[in-house]
């Protein structure tokens, strides 16, 4: 084992924070793209992948929903990171000196009120941690970055203002993935099962496929559709349910699902994280 967990982005990204929170004993391995994160695990350079899949403010991360079924990896855990955004600047900079703030476009949009109130112009950067790195390297007190605490720590920047995001509950959900599945673990807060499927080409196929979960009392926490193969007619569904495939109710529901669908593929069985129930 390498004892590494791979993430997408520069050191100090929110994905890096997720790695530190969920697997503090592991070395975090930064990767350029989500595909590189997956390949790092497949090739053995890392043992685990940390992939963001959805955000409470901006919805799902579409790239990863397409990558998950083809990755060859298996979900073994989930993690939640509260996205607190800070204004970071070179040491000794007073807030009134800042004229521009750089970050990913998404974060810039989440801090409109604060930036407008302080007459700070928005500058789009490649990502959050990369923007913090750029600010540190440039050394211009008029340019700040929007990023998390970890980025400030790594790049030696001062935090001029904390938690400046407009929304008070912005949270990102991550999936932790491994080369090997592990169906043995059940969490203190329940168990999640994630899978993808395609419905058969018959009338009301999706309605019939979902019926087994309702009649067996299995809670489906997520159901999302997305096109595959560049076709308007080829639709794949991603679903999360509460329960383990060995539970009798889940087993009956999955049996009924398979009758009305094709290509059912379980992506992972893993403990539900505590924030899901807070």
UniProtKB/TrEMBL annotation:
Q: Which residues form the Prephenate dehydratase domain?
A: 4-179
Query: Pathway membership of this protein?
Result: Amino-acid biosynthesis; L-phenylalanine biosynthesis; phenylpyruvate from prephenate: step 1/1
Cite a single GO MF annotation.
prephenate dehydratase activity
* Catalyses which reaction(s): prephenate + H(+) = 3-phenylpyruvate + CO2 + H2O
Keywords (alphabetical) are:
Amino-acid biosynthesis, Aromatic amino acid biosynthesis, Lyase, Phenylalanine biosynthesis
User: The ACT domain covers which part of the protein?
Assistant: 194-271
Superkingdom:
Bacteria
**Bilayer-crossing regions:** none
Give the enzyme's EC designation: 4.2.1.51
Q: Does the keyword Oxidoreductase apply?
A: no
Q: Does the keyword Lyase apply?
A: yes
Q: Which GO terms describe its biological process?
A: L-phenylalanine biosynthetic process
Q: Name one Pfam family in it.
A: PDT
Might you report a single GO cellular component term? cytoplasm
SUPFAM superfamilies according to UniProt:
ACT-like (SSF55021), Periplasmic binding protein-like II (SSF53850)
Protein name as annotated: prephenate dehydratase
* Gene source species: Salinihabitans flavidus
């Amino acid at each position: 084992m390498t004892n590494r967990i791979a993430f997408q982005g520069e050191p100090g990204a929110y994905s890096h924070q997720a790695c530190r929170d969920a697997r503090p004993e592991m070395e975090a391995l930064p990767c350029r793209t989500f595909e590189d994160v997956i390949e790092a695990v497949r090739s053995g350079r890392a043992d685990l992948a940390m992939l963001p899949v959805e955000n409470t403010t901006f919805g799902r991360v579409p790239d990863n929903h397409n990558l998950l079924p083809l990755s060859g990896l298996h979900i073994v855990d989930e993690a939640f990171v509260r996205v607190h955004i800070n204004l970071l600047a070179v040491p000794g900079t007073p807030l009134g000196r800042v004229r521009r703030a750089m970050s990913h476009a998404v974060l810039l949009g989440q801090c409109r009120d604060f930036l407008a109130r302080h007459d700070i112009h928005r500058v789009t950067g490649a990502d959050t941690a990369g923007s913090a790195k750029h600010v540190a390297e440039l050394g211009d007190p008029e340019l700040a970055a929007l990023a998390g605490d970890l980025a400030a720590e790594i790049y030696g920047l001062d935090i001029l203002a904390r938690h400046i995001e407009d929304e008070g509950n912005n949270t990102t959900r991550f999936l932790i993935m491994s080369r090997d599945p592990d169906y043995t673990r059940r969490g203190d807060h329940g168990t999640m099962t994630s899978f993808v499927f395609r419905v058969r080409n018959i009338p009301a196929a999706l309605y019939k496929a979902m019926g087994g979960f309702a009649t067996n009392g299995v809670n489906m926490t997520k159901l999302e559709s997305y096109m595959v193969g560049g076709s308007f007619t080829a639709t794949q569904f991603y679903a999360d349910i509460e329960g383990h495939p060995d539970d009798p109710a889940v087993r009956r529901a999955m049996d009924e699902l398979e009758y009305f669908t094709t290509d059912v593929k379980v992506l992972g069985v893993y403990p539900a994280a505590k924030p899901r129930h807070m």
